[in-house]
């Protein structure tokens, strides 16, 4: 194999395992995705024992690791049998420059502010959160993702247990009959339902659906289990996956065909109890976003058009993505009223011995939370993880110079990690000897680790470490004796700074408007619009129709609970009728 512009004095790169995007010395021996991968602009494999044919690979970055698999990030398979000289000719000055730059850093191809969509996919993959799968809209959640999910899960699970909500697990499958039971609200969703119609080669007698949400799976049993007022409240939650076969553009975490979530389904004797729980759960969702993911959210109520059709009212936490100017629903907490109780006959005998219907709630948050985090905090170097959710909060990297006592540096690194772990931090050391310190810096920056500690000969001599913040790039030297206190301080400062920066960015996007012209101007400027509204359903439909286009229509995000004063006589921006409330509008995910 001949690689253009790649220095390979050790002759490591003998073979490129095309199927796995890995360089190997021998077939089957994996020596990793090397930093020099990006330096290869074009390579010709003259003989390949697996494929039999010679081939020509272009590293033009167009593939971007997106849809359809391909052979990996930035690589496309071309065919130019015998056409290349294996050296790719003499590169232009420009392309040589590019090679040098690419050789020294493993960076992202796309910029957040320039190509946001491509940047997002690339950062999810390069940060090792996600791997694309060969079914469109399905993604592998890698350990780096699952650790964050588990942190959010541990928090929420503990909080709902304090509320005496119990976990249960209901089946993945639902029969057509049962699914159709709530046909009014299923109607609109029907195209998204995935069905199992065969077992082996034989058609099944009755096809079964895969749950898109579990109302129809659970509520027949709520009807069975609830008899008298002493059976109430019934408060169950389940952690599971759901499948919605979406047709609009799939995006990792944000819109995937299968995702993980929790769904809570509760039943009460009174409306008051239900109302109170809706807000208690919504507050937990706010805390997930603001306290863990460092993302500011707006709590509010959904409009009639945007609420869960089967419910009574819907509350949500809404986040905002400044780069695309889109709102994104972060989580929802619904009061279902007695609608489902009617459909599924969930009745009970009250204290007076009369037959009554239960009041129900349902609420959910999903792995979408993690996508919002990537979008809000990530930068051109990769992921930026808030310390509270990062599975590695501190990465320690040895920096041995040529004549330095490598063993002593390694020992100092190990003991630093031990000190930090004992103090309750999540710290790791990267002692790999096949990567340079510089490569490791980029690698862990790409993965978004909040704090890096470098230990070199000078640090060793001075009994100090050098720390570098992922969020700001700020560097400082810390004496060993105050390591624990200072790391604690810096991590909590990073958590706070990330939230403040995100909040400031969002605030800069909020635009208060009063007229239709102002509304359109703000929409075109990617603003999060706060507008006085008459709260009429057909007015929202009209706004949707009038703003329809390539980017999608504008709609209400929520009516914030926190309402600014609405001066007497204020008119609706869209209808000119008297305004009833301030409502957030915008395009959304
Ligand atoms: C709406 C409503 C509700 C329990 C929640 O938001 C919280 C947790 N569920 C979910 N919804 C559907 O009901 C639905 C139904 C079908 Cl059949 C579907 F294919 C997709 C759906 N998407 C959302």
TrEMBL record:
Any GO MF annotation of the entry = proline-tRNA ligase activity
Q: Which residues cross the membrane?
A: none
Which GO BP terms sit in this record?
A: prolyl-tRNA aminoacylation
Which segments constitute the Aminoacyl-transfer RNA synthetases class-II family profile domain?
148-386
SUPFAM superfamilies found in the cross-reference section: C-terminal domain of ProRS, Class II aaRS ABD-related, Class II aaRS and biotin synthetases
> Gene Ontology terms, cellular component aspect?
aminoacyl-tRNA synthetase multienzyme complex; cytoplasm
The record lists the catalysed reaction(s) as:
tRNA(Pro) + L-proline + ATP = L-prolyl-tRNA(Pro) + AMP + diphosphate
Q: Which NCBIfam families match?
A: proS_fam_I (TIGR00408)
Q: What is this protein called?
A: proline--tRNA ligase
Organism (species): Cocos nucifera
Q: Give the classification, highest ranks.
A: Eukaryota, Viridiplantae, Streptophyta, Embryophyta, Tracheophyta
